[in-house]
Amino acid sequence: MTTETIVLIGAVAGALAFGGYRAFTDGRFTGTHRVRGGAEEPEQHEGERVLAGTEWADQLGERATLLQFSSAFCAPCRATRRILTEITEVVPGVRHLEIDAEHHLELVRELGIMRTPTTLVLDRFGREVRRAQGAPAKQQVLAALAEV
């Protein structure tokens, strides 16, 4: 076997491994921290509010907020928008907010948003509970909301 053939096989194997990893993890919600407190909002966790001090701070849902970071030319963002909108129509107390990542880079950097779409599930106080990078399935979103 020539060196070129070995390099080609290695590149193809690496691409397949990366593609498999992305297919497995894309759109899956991961936990970010445990939600603390119960009926009353704990004062000591004021700094954990994702949207504190932003124009969206007073637009939280009564139960939860689905916060989507999108970009203009992102096809999965449109699919995610449709799924999240459908969920807010059937689940009471849940609100969907969409933020254009390109126009709010400071917030994107602060929250560690690495790609679009990224969906954050916020509790009713605006604290991040779950996060998904990529387009989540409707059942995954509903399961994440069940934990809030």
Quickly count the helices.
4
**Uncertain spans, ≥5 residues at pLDDT below 50?**
33-47
Largest sheet: 5 strands, mixed
Task: Determine Rg (CA atoms, Å).
Answer: 18 Å
Alpha-carbon distance between the termini? 56 Å
SSE run: HEEHEHEEH
Estimate the strand proportion. 15-25%
Strand order, sheet with most strands: 1-5-4-2-3
Structural class: alpha+beta
Number of strands: 5
Percent range of helical residues: 25-40%
**pLDDT averaged residue by residue:** 84
Shape: elongated
Description:
Mean pLDDT is 84; it is low at 33-47. Helix content is 37%, strand content 20%. It is of the alpha+beta class and 148 residues long. A hairpin with a 4-residue loop joins strand 4 and strand 5. It is built from 4 helices and 5 strands. It has helices at residues 3-25, 75-90, 105-111, 138-146, and strands spanning 29-31, 64-70, 94-100, 118-123, 128-133. A 5-stranded mixed beta sheet has the order 1-5-4-2-3, with helices on one face.
Features:
alpha+beta; 4 helices; 5 strands; 5-stranded mixed beta sheet; elongated; 148 residues; 37% helix; single chain
Element layout with pairings:
Blueprint: H1 3-25, E1 29-31, E2 64-70, H2 75-90, E3 94-100, H3 105-111, E4 118-123, E5 128-133, H4 138-146
What's this, in brief?
By secondary structure, the protein is α+β, with helices and mostly antiparallel strands. The chain has helices at 3-25, 75-90, 105-111, 138-146; strands spanning 29-31, 64-70, 94-100, 118-123, 128-133.
